[in-house]
Amino acid sequence: MKDNKYDHELGYVIEKALAKQLLAMELITPEQYAEVNKMLIEEYKPLIGSLCEADDSVTHDNNPTESPRKEE
After folding, report:
1. How far apart are CA 8 and CA 69, in angstroms?
2. pLDDT tier at 60 (50, 70, 90 boundaries)?
3. What is the pTM of this model?
């Protein structure tokens, strides 16, 4: 299989989402999440996914997996 940019982006996004879930479940600390994200960037070298990194500040009070939802 040819190694391409799309595969790198997809791998980064999927693994980062898994790390966010672990963080939300409090199975890893925010510091561990930051380290995992750093390792993922080094491994996948994402072009687009890493642009969102600056907006992805993680604290215990800020759950990165939850988004505001409208009440129906």
Report:
1. 30
2. very low
3. 0.64
